[in-house]
Design goal:
The protein has three helices and 14 strands. By secondary structure, it is α+β, with helices and mostly antiparallel strands.
Length: 241
């Protein structure tokens, strides 16, 4: 897939999400007259060149180097990922979350101009951390005189990345609430099953059964309850619980 640098002034790259390998796309490969900010339908995300020197100095490493960061959709646009050039790949799935705060050294003193970006699992377990220099992004942001007023996320890759995590979490929560509200939890025998899952009826003992959406709910013959009504019976693996 082709990715474009999020600062809008660097080359387009051809990125292989399976291996993490990438190459700069040659000018002869780009469609004639196409601006880099709107390359083509092949564009699935952004990437950024970022010096890792401060991360290595104040983190666990001991040598300097460069890292590359990518944010991209899967080719079918169903899954959203963050990945770095070391091969770390984390899905932005609506469960994990990101934190951005001032970086500090081992003694707890703030490192001027440095920000600490972290990614956590839903249970709070740290799975990724990077310290970067925010000064170039703040400078570019302050010099952006576009109208309407620009946002820092337009320039700072990690601010935008945290926003992506926040957006996916908010949408996942809204989707869960919407799905719960729309769920039909009681239906009469002879009617189609409103949604796939486990159902039971008080008209018969040990009646709990899995039905697929569209199946016809069966009538319990000879029941002292009269007409048969089936009730939704949540499963422990139900993602909406």
């Amino acid at each position: 897939m082709w990715l474009e640098n999020c600062l809008r002034a660097k080359p387009v790259i051809d990125f292989n999400p399976d291996t993490g390998e990438y190459r700069i796309v040659g000018k002869d490969e780009l469609p004639d007259g196409t601006a880099l900010v709107d390359i083509s339908e092949k564009l699935y995300g952004d990437y950024l060149d970022e010096s890792d020197e401060m991360h290595l100095k104040y983190g666990k490493g001991s040598s300097c180097g460069n890292k590359r960061f990518f944010v991209y959709w899967s080719s079918d646009r169903t899954r959203f990922y963050f990945q770095d050039s070391d091969g770390t790949r984390i899905e932005i799935d609506g469960k994990r979350y990101a934190e951005l705060k001032d970086a500090a050294d081992v003694s707890g003193h703030a490192i001027a101009g440095r920000m600490q970006f972290s990614i956590y699992e839903a249970d709070g377990q740290l799975i990724y951390r990077h310290i970067y220099d925010q000064t170039p992004y703040l400078t570019a942001y302050m010099m952006d005189f576009s109208f309407p007023a620009p946002e820092l996320a337009d320039w700072d890759f990690f601010v935008a990345l945290k926003g992506s995590f926040d957006y996916m979490r908010e949408n996942a929560h809204e989707h869960q609430e919407s799905s719960t509200k729309e769920r039909v939890e009681r239906a009469a025998a002879g009617q189609p099953v409103p949604q796939s899952g486990w159902w039971f009826t008080p008209a018969k003992q040990s009646s709990r059964c899995y039905f697929k959406q569209g199946d016809t709910l069966p009538e319990i013959e000879g029941s002292s309850y009269g007409a048969t009504f089936w009730q939704w019976s949540p499963d422990q693996s139900d993602p909406h619980l």
